[in-house]
Amino acid sequence: MEPEWLDIGPVDQLPALGARTLPVQGGREIAIFHTANGGIYALANQCPHKAGPLSQGIVHDTTVTCPLHNWRISLVTGEALGEDKGCVPVIPVKVDGGRILISRAAALAGVA
Ligand code: FES
């Protein structure tokens, strides 16, 4: 049986306030974020507004600002903040032994 979690690399290759992307099935991408306080979060790499690449946004606390029209998206809930409405799928992620692990099911589902 396949393990439930997919190892996508060491945390220390993802600088604080940085993000990287991971292609998943269906031509989609997951964006993985590293916050200033060391948190790791993963979202579908598509802004709920017009699908802007969130991985290229600016990370601040536990939000990312979309590079296209500056919507702020919560890294925790995937929801747009403030007056904006929309939600992007949150991908289960954890850190174990300095490695970033994401939910295999979410990756294989192509983040529906
Ligand atoms: S596409 Fe992200 S704010 Fe418009």
TrEMBL record:
Q: Does the keyword Iron apply?
A: yes
Respond yes or no to whether keyword Metal-binding is given for this record: yes
Domain named Rieske: which ranges? 5-102
Q: Which GO terms describe its molecular function?
A: 2 iron, 2 sulfur cluster binding; metal ion binding; nitrite reductase [NAD(P)H] activity
List, alphabetically, the InterPro entries matched.
Rieske-like_NirD, Rieske_2Fe-2S, Rieske_2Fe-2S_sf
Alphabetical UniProt keywords: 2Fe-2S, Iron, Iron-sulfur, Metal-binding, Nitrate assimilation, Oxidoreductase
PROSITE patterns named in the record: RIESKE (PS51296)
The protein's superkingdom reads Bacteria
Query: What biological process terms from GO does the record include?
Result: nitrate assimilation
The record's annotation in NCBIfam families points to: nirD_assim_sml
UniProt-recorded name of the protein? Nitrite reductase small subunit NirD
